[in-house]
Design brief:
This protein is an alpha/beta fold. It has a single domain, classed as TIM Barrel (Alpha-Beta Barrel). Helix content is about 40%, strand content about 20%. The protein is built from nine helices and eight strands. It has helices at about 5-10, 25-40, 60-70, 105-120, 140-145, 155-165, 185-195, 210-220, 230; strands at about 10-15, 45-50, 75-80, 90-100, 125-130, 170-175, 200-205, 225. Helix 6 (about 155-165) runs parallel beside helix 7 (about 185-195) and helix 7 (about 185-195) packs parallel to helix 8 (about 210-220). The mean pLDDT is about 95. The structure holds SN-glycerol-1-phosphate. SN-glycerol-1-phosphate binds near residues 181 and 226.
């Protein structure tokens, strides 16, 4: 089954790992794999993925990924913050277009910079519409990309943007409240996007407990992404 179909099956979770904040070694890989399996059971998930990336990257991502990939069995998908966060050591790469940004750098320039490398190395890409939605506080992605988030109340704008992504041929839509968001993307937004756009929906940013995750799934999310909650406490939900 291809990646989009796997994600579309629904009720999956991605653990977001930022290599800048996480040294990779055998003990970490073992602990995070164990965590993934326990979450799979606890939340009755279809699949668990690792998403790897960050708004900035001061470490050697290629080296990090090579090591990590050699130590885990679950799928490793790059969630890149820039064209520099591309590597052959992954199962797939979210080829993001930052649809809510009005900064040309993230709308098209970053994609151009990585295109030839991706093609040459036959890296599997998943074309993804990426929308930043106000999560109640200024987040790293907003600062680094110099992009204003959409307001949670701008439902028409959010919906139209996701449909534009669908018409452009994207395969997934990522509704992002930003890492450490105070307010995750509201269920009403997910529901509206679900009813207007046929792409599988990824939701991330500020998901910290079971009820928030369940709400996102019920509203129509296929995949929920959790970063900070696990980063701060590896015993999250144990
Ligand atoms: C993934 O950026 C999010 O979309 C991760 O957000 O760190 O708040 O879980 P958290």
């Amino acid at each position: 089954m291809d990646w989009v179909s796997r994600i579309k099956s629904g009720r999956s979770l991605a653990i977001l790992i930022d290599p800048e904040k996480t040294a990779v070694d055998y003990a970490f890989a073992k602990a995070i794999s164990k965590k993934a399996l326990s979450l799979k059971k606890k939340l009755n998930l279809n699949e668990v993925f690792f998403f790897i990336g960050g708004s900035t990257m001061e470490v050697d991502l290629d080296k990090w990924l090579k090591e990590f990939k050699g130590l885990v069995t679950l799928p490793v998908i790059i969630f890149p913050g820039s064209h520099e966060q591309v590597s052959i050591h992954c199962d797939a790469l979210l080829y993001l277009q930052f649809m809510s940004s009005r900064n040309a750098q993230y709308l098209i320039e970053e994609q151009i910079k990585s295109a030839l490398f991706i093609k040459q190395h036959k890296i599997v890409t998943i074309p993804t519409s990426y929308l930043l939605i106000d999560g109640g506080k200024s987040t790293a992605v907003q600062r680094v990309t110099n992009s204003q988030p959409y307001k949670q109340t701008d439902i028409e704008l959010i919906t139209a943007t996701t449909v534009a992504g669908e018409l452009l041929g994207h395969k997934l839509v990522y509704l992002e409240a930003g890492s450490g968001a105070v307010l995750p993307v509201a269920a009403g937004i997910i529901e509206k996007v679900k009813s207007s756009c046929s792409l599988p929906i990824i939701v991330g940013g500020g998901l910290r407990d079971v009820s928030q995750i369940e709400r996102a799934f019920t509203a129509g999310a296929s995949l929920c992404v959790v970063g900070t909650a696990i980063e701060e406490n590896v015993e999250w939900m144990d």
